[in-house]
Amino acid sequence: MTKRLVSYAVPMTEQPDRRGLILASAAEMFARKGFGSTTVREIADAVGVLSGSLYHHFDSKDAIVEEILTGFLAAIQSRYAQVLERALSPAESLHDLVLASLQVASEQPDATTIYQNELQYLREQQRFADVLGAAAEVQKTWLRVIEKGVAEGTFRDDIDPRVFYRLIRDAVWLSVRWRHPDPPEQLAAEITSVFLDGFARPPV
């Protein structure tokens, strides 16, 4: 199987950007093997440098995963800000948050997998306070839209908004593990419809 290397928006010059190659190779390995099972030497070998040379760019594996996830969450926050700027109805905003999430997951599947799989490790390390802070801001955006829908009477008020958020969050982010052919737009419409309209056939 051909390995897929994902760009993390690092500038490219005539020579391949070494830092970008390290991030892409590490992201693929962290997603495939797990953060704990991937060694610095394996990352260095994949990029074609000595382990010591890799430390000129990053002081540790933690520094690598921190940069991967910081870029990932920054992309999400940027897309979410665009959704909120449109000042749509809560239902429309919810759909667009789902779509924005799926688009980022499609663009950065390795980072999405790392974030889902390594969240507990991140919570145990003080170094990742900024990453967790960004994740908290992502959650606040969802809750703002959901709570607005409840206040306006668009969404049900007998379900805790945090419970609803966690359910739709997992449906969205864990979908990166599927091998589904649907484009993000179609999947976003399906997820939103199921969560807002249900799966039961409407009465004739």
Task: Summarize the model shown.
This protein is an all-alpha fold and 204 residues long. The protein has helices at residues 18-33, 40-47, 51-54, 61-85, 90-107, 109-124, 129-152, 161-173, 184-197.
Descriptive overview:
With 204 residues, the chain is mainly alpha-helical. It has a domain at 62-197: Tetracycline Repressor, domain 2, CATH 1.10.357.10. 68% of the residues lie in helices and 0% in strands. Helix 4 (61-85) packs parallel to helix 7, helix 5 (90-107) runs antiparallel to helix 7 (129-152) and helix 5 packs antiparallel against helix 9. The longest helix is centred in the middle third of the chain and has 25 residues, at 61-85.
Percent helix, as a range, is 55-70%
Number of helices: 9
CATH class of the domain at 62-197: Mainly Alpha
CATH 4th-level superfamily of the domain at 62-197: Tetracycline Repressor, domain 2
- DSSP strand (E) fraction? under 5%
Unreliable residue runs:
1-5, 9-15
Number of strands: 0
- Rg (C-alpha, Å): 19 Å
Question: Key features?
Answer:
Tetracycline Repressor, domain 2, 9 helices
Would you spell out the secondary-structure blueprint of this structure?
Blueprint: H1 18-33, H2 40-47, H3 51-54, H4 61-85, H5 90-107, H6 109-124, H7 129-152, H8 161-173, H9 184-197
Helix pairs in contact: 1-2, 1-4, 1-6, 4-5, 4-6, 4-7, 5-6, 5-7, 5-8, 5-9, 7-8
